[in-house]
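Shipment paperwork, digital attachment
Item: protein structure file
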Amino acid sequence: MKNLLIVVDMQNDFIDQALGTEEAVKTVPEVVGLILDPAFDQVIATKDTHHEDYLQTLEGKMLPVTHCVENTEGWQINPDVEAALEKRSALVITKGTFGSERLASMVKEMKPEKITLCGLCTDICVISNGLLLRAALPDTPIEAVSAACAGTTKENHEAALAVMRSCQIDIR
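Attachment content:
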């Protein structure tokens, strides 16, 4: 496989519900455009997945906003993004925390020539998965598409892009 797109957590709770932002809403058409781009040989999407006990977890204690509880509306992928993922027969995997070791392991086995990242939130899950992928595939070019990502704040988005850039993840 040559070119892999990874779409991180484009779920309702991160776009326009519990943790949504105006910037996140603006990423939807950008992400859909990437998903539908035939330059990508394969598309993988992640879904942040929590349960009713979320507030009792370490993450829940540090970020006490219930979100992405499995089988809720907030947990669902945005409808426009979901439709694009279905058109591309994308693989969708759940993850219980910021970064997915399963994703990194799967991608390592795929041996892509290039990886492109997009999604939410730049400063939490996008950067976490980007750094896991960088560690798993040290010689594979990885890029993040700034306009197809949004952070918890504009400042955190820019800071995450700067950190990814310093870890040899290209930003476009």
